[in-house]
Amino acid sequence: MKKKKFAIIGSPVSHSLSPIMHNYWFKKYNIDAEYELLDIDKSEIQNVIDKIKNKEIKGINVTLPYKKSVIPFLSKTINDANETHSVNTVMLDEKNNLIGENTDVFGFQAAYLKSIPNQEKKNKKVLVLGAGGVAPSIILALLKSKMHNITLSNRTYEKSLFLKKNFKNLSIIKWNDLSIEINKFDIIINATSLGLNSNDEFNSDFSNFKKNMVYIDTIYNPAETKMIKYFKSNKIRTHNGLNMLIYQGQKSFYLWNKINPEVDDELLKLLESKLD
Length: 276
Description:
There is one protein chain. The chain has helices at residues 18-28, 45-53, 80-84, 104-113, 118-121, 135-144, 157-166, 178-181, 226-233, 242-257, 265-273; strands at 4-10, 33-39, 59-62, 76-77, 89-92, 98-101, 126-129, 150-153, 171-172, 187-190, 214-217, 237-239. It has two domains: 4-102 and 243-273, Rossmann fold; 106-240, NAD(P)-binding Rossmann-like Domain (Rossmann fold, 3-Layer(aba) Sandwich). By secondary structure, the protein is α/β, with parallel strands linked by helices. The chain has a six-stranded mixed sheet, with helices on both faces.
């Protein structure tokens, strides 16, 4: 029997640990499959989609900048992908329809929100930085966790307003006003790509933060972005994006293989050893 093929598409994807994670699970569950990186241009999406239709590829994950761009190529989107208009997992159903799902919502909830006591959730004031890529998934994850006090800030103000069309109760603050408003928030989440490169700058003053706040960065490689280092040095609790990667991957793996893979210590150590 031919080896099953899976992949992640995006640009850049060289930093992604998805192949290491999925290939670990394939080996653990004796599945004859491999998962690879596909760094592609937007013009090449059709080619990858054709390979899924022809069953040369069984399923793909989608990362920046194609989580929205891939949608017109699909037969339909389901569940969280319908609400976020963002797809990170693609597969064929039993009728050979090309289905797009979003597992980032589950990934964010499982990684960071389940541990917050329910009675505390409704009082938390949350700031989401960024309006592209993973931002809609984070907002939906917060709403599904009964956390409704959400503010968004994006470098391009118009993009924030566009996201507000989807999520009516979202508050918006301008990027230039962050330094004044920052002390209102209990949780700050970086949903931008700022931090992937060591020379990335937010160009905003975060020093006025709440002393007992929590900072979550959706970037996991490097393990400590400039912002994580900054908040850590100020005794603030921080999380990088590794757990979100793992739990969104766990759900993708289940959708493709109907096996819910275990997140064990060996996997965690393996992934952590690959981080910059």
